[in-house]
Structures are given as structure tokens and as C-alpha cells.
Specification:
By secondary structure, the protein is an alpha+beta fold. It is built from 7 helices and 12 strands. It is elongated, with a radius of gyration of 20 Å.
């Protein structure tokens, strides 16, 4: 699943592709992808894309002609945006197969948004878990309110984090994966952040010390910032809207490294199940 760095990469690059463009037409190929909104096309045609915001892994499109209309977009597991313009095809997210790059629209295309200048924004989603949802300002704020602070945000600080952990009895990994608590951290980056902080994923959140909490805060922000800088992590078929694959995979220290020596101490990296997810850690460095 695309995580915060991947979604942020797509958001930033889509800004350069579609902001300022007017929507000239919309075609819905699968109603579930637009939450069965029968007026989806009618509401969007004629609108000009003003901005693309993001909270966690949720992208938020706003429009110049209507301050009370917003498009919420979530890629979930297999969603991907493809931008097709004059002489270019680029995409971002998880594609189902490499064939998704050609012959658009294809069998995985759920929505096509036609833009002025002979351009089209396609939303592809093999498993149809992702969505495009039109909401008003109140609904948008309600959706944003479901997310906790992001590891790269100013309000994600050690003092708040430590105090909040004292109320949680779950493993620290489960706490970090909870989007209502911390927005944007997914399986890959939680493993990496906990490794850097020296904390085992299975440790109960309320048992994490103040010093360890500060280390987790610093590590989470650093992992996110570094990954955004190189376009995210490539697993399966993640690519950004420039058609480039994320490069952070070469900097991973524990995720997917089970059976290999720890970069710090040489102990074999282990993989277990924690918080319902495959979890990687060093049994020596992380306590």
C-alpha cells in the first residue's frame, strides 16, 4: 500500500500537471470508486482545479469555482493516478500490472477526468478499494479530523507523544499504525523508525520510556523526510507521476531484510507477526 511519502510524491507532482486546468468531462466506469455518487460527473464538469492538499494518505482536491466542493482521493492498496497529456503518459501509485501504462482507459480504469488542453487524469484501481469522494467543506473537515498529527508536522512532538502513549496498552507498532493517532505511518516506515529508535515493535506502548518516545519521534520524522526526498519506496509497482520508481528501498535497514545481518550489530534480522502485519526487527539492537 502506498504510504505517506509515496502519496506526497504523487500529490506534489500532480500539482504541476493539473492545477489550473478546467475539467471538461468526466466518465465513471465503476460506481463504487465514486461512492455510488450519481451526480459525480455533473458536480465536477466546468470546475477548475485550484489545489491539492493532503492529510495522511488522503489527497484533497479543491476547485476555484466552488469553495464548498472538495474531492477526497485515497489510493488504498492498488489505486493509481495516470496523467495523459500531449505526448506524455505518467502515473503514480500502485499499478496492478505494467500493462496499466498502455491503452488507457483499460480494464482497471475506474474514473476518467478530462481536462482542457487534451489532457486526462485516469484513476485506476485493480481491487477497487480506493475511492474518489466528493464532499462539502464540513464533510472535508470531518474527514481531516479523523487523522492524528503527521511525523513531519510541527505538532508531532516528543512531549505530546510520550503522554499519549501512556494511555495505550497495545504494542507500540499497533499504536503507530493507527491513523487516528499518527497519520501517514505504514508498515514499512514503522519498522524502520522503531529500528532507528532501538525499540522493539512488540513493546507495550505505555511501557515506552520518555527517552525512547523522543527517539521514535525523531526517527519517524527522519524516515518520512528522507523517503519523500527520494520519491518513496518501491515495492511491487509503485511509481510516481513522472514514471520514476521510488528510491528509498535502497536505504531500508530492516524491512524485508529477515535472515540478513543487522547493519549495526550483525545479529540476524527477524520477521514476526505484530499488529496483524509482517514485522522486521533486530533482537539485539531493539529492546
Amino acid at each position: 500500500m502506498p504510504e505517506l511519502p509515496e502519496v506526497e510524491t504523487v500529490r506534489i507532482q500532480l500539482l504541476n500537471k493539473i492545477v489550473g486546468k478546467k475539467i471538461t468531462g468526466v466518465e465513471v466506469f465503476h460506481s463504487k470508486s465514486v461512492r455510488n455518487d450519481e451526480s459525480f460527473e455533473e458536480k465536477l464538469v466546468g470546475k477548475r482545479v485550484a489545489d491539492i492538499d493532503r492529510v495522511g494518505k488522503l489527497m484533497i482536491f479543491s476547485f476555484a469555482e466552488d469553495s464548498d466542493l472538495f474531492l477526497l482521493a485515497h489510493l488504498k492498496m492498488t489505486g493509481q493516478f495516470f496523467f495523459v497529456g500531449e505526448g506524455e503518459i505518467s502515473g503514480g501509485g500502485h499499478s496492478a500490472t505494467e500493462n496499466d501504462w498502455t491503452d488507457l482507459p483499460n480494464k482497471h480504469t475506474r474514473v476518467a477526468i478530462y481536462l482542457e488542453g487534451n489532457a486526462t487524469l485516469y484513476f485506476n484501481d485493480m481491487r477497487i478499494f480506493g475511492y474518489l469522494h466528493l464532499v462539502n467543506k464540513e464533510e472535508k473537515e470531518k474527514a481531516k479530523g479523523k487523522f492524528g498529527p503527521e511525523p513531519i508536522a510541527d505538532d508531532f512532538n516528543a512531549e505530546w507523544f510520550y503522554k499519549s502513549l501512556k494511555r495505550k496498552k497495545t504494542p507500540i507498532k499497533a499504536a503507530l499504525l493507527n491513523q487516528n493517532f499518527i497519520a501517514g505511518l505504514g508498515n514499512i516506515y514503522v519498522d524502520e523508525a522503531l529500528y532507528r529508535a532501538g525499540v522493539r515493535p512488540m513493546r507495550r506502548a505505555d511501557k515506552v520510556t520518555k527517552k525512547e518516545a523522543a527517539a521514535i519521534v525523531a526517527a519517524s520524522g527522519a524516515v518520512m523526510t528522507e523517503s519523500i526526498a527520494v520519491g518513496g519506496t518501491t515495492f511491487q509497482n509503485f511509481v510516481d507521476v513522472e514514471g520514476k520508481r521510488g528510491n528509498f528501498v535502497q536505504f531500508l535497514q530492516v524491512f524485508g531484510k529477515q535472515g540478513q545481518p543487522c547493519p549495526r550489530c550483525g545479529t540476524e534480522i527477524e520477521k514476526i507477526r505484530c499488529a496483524g502485519r509482517g514485522t522486521h526487527y533486530c533482537p539485539q539492537c531493539q529492546i
